[in-house]
Structures are given as C-alpha cells and as structure tokens.
Write a structure and sequence with these properties.
284 residues; alpha/beta; globular
C-alpha cells in the first residue's frame, strides 16, 4: 500500500546535509544555536544517499531539498554549493532550494545568480533561526521583491500559535504569515507545516482571498495534528493548495502512509497533494 500511495509523488520538503555535518554536527551546533537546539543528538542527520534510498523504496520521483536556515552567510554558501552538487549527481530528482541570510547585505545580489544556476527557490527561511521578522520587512522588502521577480519560490518555516512546545517551533504564526503574504502578493510561497494552521482561518473571506499564491506542505503534520486536520483544510481551501512534504529525515513515507489514509481524502485529492500540485508548484 505504501509504495502504491507514493508512486510518482514529489516530496516537497526534505533536509539533507554535507557529510562533514552528518558525521560531526557539533561543527555547526557550536556556531548556530537554532541548529544546536534541533539536532542536539548525534545521528539525526542524513545525506543524499539516504534520501535517494528513501525515495526509491517508496516510489517518490523527486524531492524539494533544503539544508538548514543558517544565520551565518558562510554556512549558507556552503549549503548552496553542496545542493547544486547533489542536483548534478541525481539529475531530475533533486529540486534544490538555496538558503540565504536575509540580513546579509549581499543577499539580494545573490538571488538572480542562484536562479540562473538552477535553484527552484530560497528556503527554508526561518525568522527565529536567522534573526529577522515577518512583521518588520521594510528593509528586507528588496530581498523578497527580487525573489518574486526572479520567479523563485519562497520556502517559509511556519509554526502553530498554540499547542505543545518543541525544538524548532518558533514564532512564525498564521497571523504573521498572513500579513507577510499580503505585503508580497507576487511572491510564490511554500508554507511549511500547513502554514502553522493558516488554512483553518480560511472561513474569513479576507484570509481566503489572500491564499492564491500560497502552497501549504504537510511536513511534520503527524507530530502536530490528527489526520482529520487534512480533511478540515481540504474543506476550507480545497486540496489544490496543498503538497506532500515529509520533513525527512524527521519523518518518512511509512508514517505518512498511515496518516494520509486515515485522513479520509479521496484518491483524487491524494493525487493532487502527492503528484499534481507539486508539479504545478515546481515544474509549471
């Protein structure tokens, strides 16, 4: 059942790391507090071969790949070169997201070059990890405007305003994400973790009207919501704005297989989330 469900699918949200970081996370943890908080235990990181093995076993054809929302531009540059190399090693299967530090004075100038080199977007951007604010984008407006002009996807970490605390939760809550999206209507947004629950506010007309340029991924949902949440989101916004994302290596297809089946979505809705919508987001 698992292989049939994911055959031909795109996993829109995975994390992989260079071998030097996989082998010794402390080399980054010592200089990146957010990374340290999320990866305090050795053995939680994976590299490209692990990702491809997971994809092949489940029938997943491609993956939207990120490394980490580093605050240090030097680590961002290393991550970007690493992902380009992985994309070359596995042509057609890796959809690389570059990472930039929005506060870096050279970030805007880098965007067009990254687009020309084959990156599909920038992210997973994280205001808490990188020290910027979704509510204070005046000085950062050129960064996001240039991203939109270059046709890149903005992959944004989002978090729930209530519920249990966990490492990496953060404060990018639906109210902030909604205001941010309204300021940049030309920017294609991929909001992680179901946008921190933003679709649940779509009964408000002004919220629903602002979602046309936003996709929501399912990353880490089994840790956050019961499967019914997907059915509720589908009822409010339809499945046309949702894409499958696992947050690999945090979770993989085995856990999502049961979760998606229990959500009670129709075969057509599952096909949208797993295959059709990612194709619209990444390939159109």
């Amino acid at each position: 059942m698992e292989h049939r469900l994911f055959a031909g699918a795109t996993d829109s949200h995975v994390h992989i790391f260079p071998q030097r970081i996989v082998s010794n996370p402390e080399v980054v943890a010592s200089r990146d507090p957010w990374f340290a908080a999320c990866h305090a235990r050795k053995g939680t990181l994976r590299g490209p071969a692990d990702l491809i093995e997971m994809m092949d076993s489940a029938g997943i054809v491609r993956a939207g790949c990120t490394v980490w929302p580093f605050a240090d531009p030097v680590l961002c540059d290393e991550a970007n070169e690493f992902l380009l190399g992985v994309a070359r090693d596995y042509p057609g299967r890796i959809l690389p997201f570059a990472i930039l530090q929005p506060n870096d004075p050279s970030a805007v100038a880098k965007i067009r070059t990254l687009a020309a080199r084959g990156f599909v977007g920038i992210g997973e951007l994280n205001q808490d990890a990188q020290g910027w604010s979704l509510d204070d984008t005046g000085e950062l407006a050129p960064f996001f405007e240039e991203m939109a002009a270059a046709g890149l996807i903005c992959n944004l970490h989002c978090s729930e305003p209530v519920g249990h605390m966990y490492p990496g939760k953060g404060t990018a809550t639906p109210d902030r994400v909604w205001r941010f999206a309204g300021r940049f209507p030309g920017l294609r947004l991929l909001c992680s973790h179901l946008g921190g629950g933003l679709p649940f506010f779509a009964s408000m007309p002004e919220v629903r009207e602002s979602l046309s340029h936003i996709f929501f991924d399912t990353s880490a949902l089994p840790f956050l919501y019961t499967p019914r949440a997907l059915q509720m989101a589908s009822n409010l916004i339809g499945t046309g704005r949702m894409v499958y994302g696992s947050d690999f290596p945090l979770l993989g297809p085995a856990r999502y297989n049961a979760y998606l089946v229990e959500a009670g979505l129709s075969p057509e809705e599952l096909q949208d989330i797993l295959v059709n919508n990612p194709a619209t987001l990444f390939l159109d």
